[in-house]
Specification:
The protein is of the alpha/beta class and 279 residues long. It is globular and about 50 Å long.
Length: 279
C-alpha cells in the first residue's frame, strides 16, 4: 500500500501579513545575528506571536488551571486516527449547528477519533498574502462549538482540527470594530504602545464575547486552527501527527500537522502541500 504524506501546516514567512490585524497578535519577523558571508553561519533572532500560522490551542488558553501544551502527552500526538468532515463555508460564513451535526452524523466516526473540520478555506495558497484570507474566514457559531464539545466528549475524542483561521469571527464584535477597522498606521502591531493600551481596556467581558466559541472548545478539547490543504481530504480517514513547539506554561503555540493517507483511498495526486513521495 502506498501512503501519501501531506503537510497541512501553513508556512511561517515574513511575506505574510499574518499577525498584523489584531492587537493580541505579532507578525513573524527575523533579524540577522550572524551571516554566512561575515561569520560563516546564518543565525537569526526571531519574533512572532504564539498564534502564528497553524497552531495548537489548549485548556490553559482560557483557564488558569487548564493544561498547558507541554502537558499534552506525546503519544497523543503521533499517528492519530482521524476522520475529515466537509463543512463548506464561504467568506465570512458562520458554520451553524445543523451543518456540524449533519457532518458528524454522516461521518465514519470511531471511538477516540480526532476530527478534522474542513471548510476548504485553506486550499488556495495564493490567498495567504491577502488581508481577506485572515479577516473574512469562516468560523464556528457558539452553539456549533458546544455541539462539538458534547459529541466529541461522548465519543472519547479529545482532538479537533480545522482550516478555519479563527474559531470565532475574526476579531469578534469588539476588536474588529475598535481596532481592525482603523487605518493601519493607527493600529501598529504588538508590542506597540497603541496595541498595549488597547489590550489594557480589552477586559474579560469582551474576551468572553469575542472568543466564545474558542473558549468553549478549548476548555476540554485540544484544538488546532489554521490548517491548509485539507479540503480535498474531506470524507476520508487519515493518520495525523502533530508537532507543537514544546513551550512550557502556555495555552497556544505554533504547530506542524502532517497527515498520511492511503494513495488508493482517494488521496489527491498533487495535494496543496505534499512530500510527493510514497512512504
Amino acid at each position: 500500500m502506498t501512503l501519501r504524506t501531506i503537510n497541512l501546516t501553513r508556512p511561517i514567512t515574513t511575506e505574510s501579513p499574518a499577525g498584523s490585524f489584531f492587537p493580541w497578535e505579532a507578525p513573524y519577523r527575523t533579524e540577522e545575528i550572524a551571516t554566512l558571508t561575515h561569520n560563516g553561519a546564518n543565525l537569526f533572532h526571531i519574533t512572532m506571536g504564539s498564534g502564528s500560522a497553524t497552531r495548537l490551542l489548549g485548556p490553559a488558553l482560557g483557564s488558569p488551571t487548564g493544561a498547558t501544551v507541554d502537558q499534552l502527552p506525546p503519544q497523543r500526538l503521533l499517528g492519530r486516527s482521524a476522520i475529515v468532515l466537509s463543512c463548506q463555508a464561504g467568506p465570512g460564513g458562520e458554520i451553524a449547528t445543523d451543518t456540524v451535526r449533519a457532518a458528524l452524523d454522516d461521518a465514519d466516526l470511531r471511538t477516540g477519533d480526532a476530527v478534522v473540520l474542513a471548510t476548504g478555506w485553506g486550499d488556495e495558497p495564493d490567498r495567504f498574502g491577502e488581508a481577506a484570507y485572515y479577516l473574512d474566514g469562516p468560523y464556528l457559531s457558539v452553539a456549533a462549538a458546544q455541539l462539538l464539545v458534547e459529541r466529541l466528549g461522548a465519543n472519547s475524542s479529545d482532538l479537533l482540527l480545522t482550516d478555519c483561521l479563527y474559531l470565532d469571527r475574526p476579531g469578534g464584535d469588539h476588536a474588529r470594530t475598535e481596532w481592525t477597522a482603523l487605518q493601519p498606521w493607527l493600529r501598529p502591531s504588538y508590542p506597540s504602545d497603541a496595541a498595549t493600551i488597547y489590550l489594557t481596556h480589552y477586559r474579560p467581558e469582551k474576551v468572553r464575547h469575542d472568543w466564545a466559541a474558542t473558549l468553549t472548545l478549548t476548555e476540554s478539547i485540544w484544538t488546532v486552527a489554521g490548517l491548509v490543504g485539507c479540503g480535498a481530504l474531506a470524507g476520508h480517514r487519515i493518520r495525523l501527527t502533530l508537532a507543537p513547539l514544546n513551550v512550557q506554561g502556555v495555552g497556544e503555540v505554533p504547530c506542524t500537522v502532517v497527515a498520511q493517507m492511503s494513495g488508493d483511498d482517494g488521496a489527491p495526486d498533487t495535494p496543496v502541500f505534499s512530500s510527493g513521495e510514497p512512504t
